[in-house]
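Predict structure. Chain length: 161.
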Amino acid sequence: MIKQLAKTAVSVLVLTHNEEVNIVACLESVGWASEVFVVDSFSTDKTVELAESLGATVSQHEFETCAAQWNWALDNLPFANDWVLVLDADERVPRSLAEEIAQAVTNPAQRYVGYWMKRRFFFGGKWLRRGGLYPTWIVRLFRHGAGRFGRHGISEHLMLE
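Prediction complete.
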């Protein structure tokens, strides 16, 4: 039997639009977080229903850009925790990463405002370890209030103080 992870004082934030095929696995992978928010762009499938059934707090907001959507959420949602983990609906948090996050955010000597993570890309169920895709470093865990999303090239990036 796999031991359940204790709840960790992290607020998870997921953006969605018609993600019923991904949202359940995404939210199940963050069941260790003490709160989960989904900001949905008026999905027409079962995304909202599925997210709510898994205990997520769902808000609706019209989509402009990813950066604008992330920033709207950071400005308007009632985060109870100092730490925020942002995810796309097609992303998953493996147990080993959840354990590292718990250790990082509960460490009293911790002095950072954000953490880089190595993103792993999967295609057809296989991890793409080569071809320049791994490691892809991205900041996804940060102290609430210490960062904003902006555009850099073709994608949004979290910029920390």
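Summary: The mean pLDDT is 92.
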